[in-house]
């Protein structure tokens, strides 16, 4: 065993990420602490974060209550626990998430060429259903509610960089912010963020981007970036769509001219043109090209541009992890603040997962930890990790027989089991 893998390693990383005095301090500022302190706010936060990872649990308040009681060996009433799910607790989780995102994770990249960029960023959004009574989150269909979670994922540091929660009808691309923070960063976009004005702003701010080219895009080709042997077709001066069916070459690498509308000021909206690189890699199976638009310099070959774009799949895996591993879609509540609170908790679970992953990669950099396999492992150990935190915070270990008895028994004496209902039919005087 590596000497760094001490039994307290995980606990030390978690408590350094969110020290108890930090949680309690923010809780007081946000008025999320009750004076009688029936519930330990620090353990409540950890029960929400690690409760999202507990394998087999639903994402209900009752489930989080079970997780909390198991870890702390403290019985709390349903009403007392439910009353803590307030806008103040939501704000506490939001502040903790902002704190975690400010921590610099250890850089990790298997592609040496990416070190020339400050970060490689993946922007995308996912939609998930909410309780139909949550009218603050209207869906695209009537009589439904839906939320859209927008993320910018820093692939270099394996952590979230930005996020926002909107209703389903809000277009995902409206959440992407431009400005000088783009400088030196590489952005990989899907077609939901396709906008020449956005690409131009990234370029003007000395950032870089790669996006799939829309299938109906037909830029005028103003220059070729590679020379071809023999009697190659000249593309300069023509339009891309006119030439695609004629080409048999393995790659396309040209400069295209694109026209777009600048942002409207008052009643005026000017047209502008910009030149970007258009790259194509031929797919022999389908006998067509995978086309990309980018401002990456020529040192990146067409194959490398296509390979870089494939990294965008990482954000799809991230959403799948949030939904399938941490149950982002498995909660229903008609309370807007609780819905937002649970989303914050899910994002904190993801952030904590990545913080722990960075520790293990630093200890053993030659070992590869696939994110989804890591998430599955975290789910399997979430309850013991929470128990270890509870012990460190002064909570005694649970009395397991008492815990089983409390959780497994019928909560209401008047609610008869099937056997007793049958018995009542034969002996009504015994079972009133």
TrEMBL record:
The entry's keywords: DNA recombination, DNA-binding, Transposition
Top-level taxon: Archaea
Annotated GO MF terms: DNA binding; transposase activity
Residue intervals of the Transposase IS4-like domain: 117-350
The keyword Phosphoprotein appears for this protein: no
InterPro entries linked to this entry: RNaseH-like_sf, Transpos_IS4, Transposase_11
An example Gene Ontology biological process: DNA transposition
Keyword DNA-binding in annotation: yes
PANTHER family tied to this protein: TRANSPOSASE INSL FOR INSERTION SEQUENCE ELEMENT IS186A-RELATED
Family classification: Belongs to the transposase 11 family.
Protein name per its UniProtKB record: IS4 family transposase
């Amino acid at each position: 065993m590596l000497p760094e893998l001490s039994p307290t390693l995980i606990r030390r990383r978690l408590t350094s990420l969110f020290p108890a005095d930090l949680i309690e301090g923010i809780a007081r500022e946000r008025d999320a602490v009750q004076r009688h302190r029936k519930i330990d706010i620090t353990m409540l936060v950890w029960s929400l974060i690690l409760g999202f990872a507990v394998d087999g649990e639903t994402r209900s308040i009752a489930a989080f209550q079970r997780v909390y009681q198991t870890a702390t060996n403290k019985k709390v009433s349903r009403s007392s626990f439910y009353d803590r799910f307030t806008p103040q607790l939501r704000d506490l989780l939001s502040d903790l998430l902002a704190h975690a995102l400010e921590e610099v994770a250890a850089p990790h990249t298997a592609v040496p060429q990416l070190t020339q960029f400050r970060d490689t960023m993946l922007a995308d959004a996912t939609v998930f259903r909410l309780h139909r009574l949550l009218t603050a989150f209207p869906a695209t269909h009537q009589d439904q509610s839906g939320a859209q979670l927008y993320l910018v994922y820093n692939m270099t540091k394996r952590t979230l960089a930005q996020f926002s929660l909107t209703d389903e009808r809000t277009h995902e691309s409206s959440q992407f912010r431009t400005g000088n923070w783009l400088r030196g960063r590489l952005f990989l976009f899907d077609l939901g963020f396709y906008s020449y004005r956005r690409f131009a702003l990234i370029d003007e701010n000395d950032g870089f981007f790669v996006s799939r080219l829309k299938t109906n895009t037909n830029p005028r080709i103003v220059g070729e970036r590679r020379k071809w042997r023999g009697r190659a077709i000249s593309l300069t001066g023509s339009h891309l769509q006119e030439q695609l069916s004629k080409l048999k070459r393995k790659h396309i690498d040209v400069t295209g001219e694109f026209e777009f509308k600048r942002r409207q000021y008052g009643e005026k909206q000017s047209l502008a043109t910009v030149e970007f690189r258009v790259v194509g890699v031929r797919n022999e199976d389908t006998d067509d090209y995978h086309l990309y638009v980018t401002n990456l310099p020529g040192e990146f070959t067409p194959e490398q541009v296509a390979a870089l774009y494939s990294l965008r799949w990482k954000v799809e895996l991230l959403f799948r992890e949030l939904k399938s591993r941490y149950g982002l879609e498995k909660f229903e509540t008609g309370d807007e603040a609780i819905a937002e609170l649970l989303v914050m908790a899910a994002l904190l679970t993801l952030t904590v997962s990545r913080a722990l992953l960075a520790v293990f990669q630093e200890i053993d950099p030659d070992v590869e930890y696939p994110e989804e396999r890591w998430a599955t492992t975290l789910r399997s150990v979430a309850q013991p990790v929470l128990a270890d935190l509870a012990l460190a915070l002064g909570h005694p270990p649970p009395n397991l027989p008492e815990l089983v008895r409390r959780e497994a028994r019928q909560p209401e004496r008047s609610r008869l089991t099937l056997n007793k209902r049958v018995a009542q039919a034969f002996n009504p005087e015994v079972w009133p």
